Amino acid sequence: MYLGIDLGTSSIKLILLDEQQNILAQHSEPLSISHPKPLWSEQNPDEWWQATCRGVQQLKKHYNTAFSALKAIGLAGQQHGATLLNASDDILRPAMLWNDGRAFAECKTLAAKIASHAKITGNRIMPGFTAPKIVWVAKHEPDIFKQLAKVLLPKDFLRLKITGEYATDMSDAAGTMWLDTYARDWSDDMLNACGLTRKHMPTLFEGSDITGTVTADIASSWGISPQTMVVGGAGDNPAGAISVNVIQSGSAFLSLGTSGVFFVASDTYQANPKDGLHTFCHCIPDYWHHMSVHLSSASCVSWLAATLNESDANRLMAEVVLDIDSKSSVIFLPYLSGERTPHNNPHAQAVFFGMTHATTRADLTRAVLEGVAFAFADGQDAITQAGIKINDVSVVGGGSQNVVWGDILASVLQRPLIYRSNRDIGAALGAARLAWLGINRCDPQSAFVSPPIEKIIEPNTEKIDFYAEKRQKFQKLYHCVEDLFV
């Protein structure tokens, strides 16, 4: 048996996988997020651990025999988060998350210090990444910075609790801005620019490498063998790629989660930092991946539902289905939490434009779905302009359950989209598969089978031109209001 643990933003998800890679059980535990100030986004790492232990106990309660036969654990998690520990492994402050935008000024400071940062990391320095957060702490919380002994990414804090080891994997480490992404090694120049050295960093591993075994206390409290291995794992997006077998060069997925991600695997290192494209290590050796990232995706739909006092977002979607042929003029900029690709603007804000007395709830919902699709199209441009080939694209995440959104996305992106089974499970399944790979040690290219295809959504040829014209207005609207964001 193999356990996959995915530390998400809104929940901890756990998957129990058998020897044939079949999903035996799954469970999730909710997490809370704190926004104490504008642009701040934080969580308490202790809450991550408590939720993990609750989830384990629930799986153990219903699948005790299977759980006791556990061979390995894989970890996945939200990327870029800064978990700061002192020499006694005490948590120094709440973890600063991937969508925390406070360190915008520190990005400029760091970029000025290391002119070659884009060449080293393959990326522009953005507020959500880990490195500028530490520069912010050094400036604004110097007493905490003086005590800093280790910086861990969120999933690697769980690893420390499970194994007592300081370790991370290449895919997650690449999102810190401290990794030489091509060389797959820590960059001393990037670390020194933040007042850090390698001693502050965990040891680097590939995703299926064994990073340690569970501690005696964990073996006892979880009811598992003390020989249970823990593999490197992956950041949530690379782990999600493993779950749908996006490994071969050119294979891709589009994720409709809290944030939106267009992810393409590659066997070559190609970067496009000027357009906000992320180029990171994949969680398997000698592979990389390229991502456009949009900080608000399915969260835009849940926000609209809450704003309209609608308890079930599916009812909003149903109104769009009833109005399927509508060509509303309402435009939505989906920047509820700022934006990364291509704008790198944490101050960007959401905007509705073009409403009249005739505007309906369905018009607003459609505009939200279209706005997120237009943001994905901007990201697709950043990918293709780097010369990166995109082949088959699978759709994953909670938003993948809505077929109407798929129709809009396929028409805006002008490409067919593949919808597979188990597409809303994602990173936890990928983490469990990496655990399986860590024990079975076979070629990753042939180790996994893609989930069955349920449907393929083709672009609507009657709407391609309409969406292309509307996207031009969408892009122009952003540039018209950009100077007004504060």
Largest sheet: 7 strands, mixed
Distance between the termini: 51 Å
Mean pLDDT: 94
| Structural class by sheet pairing and helices | alpha/beta
Morphology: globular
> In DSSP terms, counting alpha (H) and pi (I) runs of 4 or more, how many helices?
18
Question: What this model shows, in words?
Answer:
With 486 residues, the chain is an alpha/beta fold. Helix content is 37%, strand content 20%. It has 18 helices and 24 strands. Strands 1, 2, 3, 5, 13, 14 and 15 form a 7-stranded mixed β-sheet that branches. It has a 7-stranded mixed β-sheet with strand order 18-19-17-16-22-23-24. Strand 16 (252-256) and strand 17 form a beta hairpin. It starts with a strand and ends in a 5-residue tail after the last helix.
Based on the model shown, name its key terms:
7-stranded mixed beta sheet, 486 residues, alpha/beta, 24 strands, 18 helices
